[in-house]
Design a protein that fits this description.
Number of helices: 8
CATH topology of the largest domain: Rossmann fold
Distance between the termini: 58 Å
Order of helices and strands: EEEHHEEHHHEEEHEHEH
Strand content: 15-25%
Number of domains: 2
CATH architecture of the largest domain: 3-Layer(aba) Sandwich
């Protein structure tokens, strides 16, 4: 390497391309939103949802679940086509209103870095939803947390259906005739479920703290029969999720650290899950142990 070469950084070693996938909600209208992105190198490929779930909730309300199902259907179809033919030349979308963008040549340290470029340059709404200012008393995270609990229960149907009845158990912790609901309770094990939503971290953290407080109160209660192990199961996206900005990843890490400190102080265990299926398998292993 000569002196001139040393002045410039080396190009990232991974070379490939990315493509954006757009949905035309009203077919024929010309209006499109970016819903997914894919990246391909000579070694591997990956397809991800590029629009955040909380943004879909804001845009489509009660129809958001249907939109998410459509997006998953499209992503699965793209993955199958890339796996079987390594090309999208003959790919046909399983639903109408899907437009796939041009191939954009890119370089990165790895596949996720190329995907991060795809999201940055094709899905502005996702970035804006992460950076938007919101009030801390927003109740939306509570709804997300409830949906997270239902998703874990639904996933358990495939893992161990016999445990379904152990979800949403209620316990009267004090003299007042008020029952507190817990995410899961079976034998000596009790768990609550919390969710960290990247675009609403402050309100999400408050919701998690409330779940921890319920576990702490249960643990310190005067009840004769109560679990011996208490755990908080936190749902969050992967810290390598290409749709997250560096600032969002840092905030997520900081929140995890704080939650860990609170849980550890009360001898409450913590488990982080990136999917409801992962959480269901973890619970099943805990109970079976």
């Amino acid at each position: 390497m000569n002196k001139l070469d040393s002045l410039f950084p080396e190009l990232p070693k991974e070379e490939g391309y990315w493509r954006a996938i757009y949905l035309e909600p009203i077919v024929g209208s010309g209006e499109k939103i970016s819903i997914a992105a894919l990246a391909v190198t000579n070694k591997q490929f990956k397809v991800i949802q590029s629009v955040r779930n909380e943004l879909l909730d804001c845009l489509y309300g009660n129809q958001a679940d249907n939109i998410r199902s459509m997006i998953s259907w499209v992503i699965n179809s793209l993955q199958t086509e890339l796996k079987t033919s390594s090309s999208l030349g003959k790919w046909v979308s399983p639903i109408a209103g899907i437009v796939i963008g041009d191939e954009i040549v890119a370089r990165g340290q790895n596949l996720d870095e190329i995907l991060r470029q795809a999201v940055r340059f094709s899905a502005s709404l996702s970035a804006l939803s992460l950076d938007a200012d919101r009030s801390d008393d927003d109740e939306q995270p509570r709804k997300y947390s409830e949906h997270w609990s239902r998703s874990i229960s639904a996933a358990m149907k495939q893992v161990n259906p016999q445990l379904i009845q152990s979800f949403g158990q209620k316990v009267q912790l004090g003299e007042a005739n008020v029952a507190t609901s817990f995410g899961f309770m079976y034998g000596d094990y009790s768990a609550n479920f919390g969710l960290l939503v990247p675009s609403r971290l402050a309100a999400s953290l408050n919701n998690v703290k409330a779940k921890l407080l319920d576990l702490e109160t249960f643990k310190k209660s005067a009840l004769v029969i109560k679990p011996r192990e208490f755990e908080i199961i936190i749902g969050s996206p992967s810290l390598t999720d290409p749709t997250l900005t560096e600032a969002s990843v840092k905030k997520l890490r900081d929140n995890f650290t704080l939650i860990e400190e609170i849980a550890e102080a009360e001898s409450i265990k913590l488990f982080r899950a990136e999917s409801a299926e992962e959480a269901a398998h973890h619970i099943n292993e805990k109970v079976a142990a």
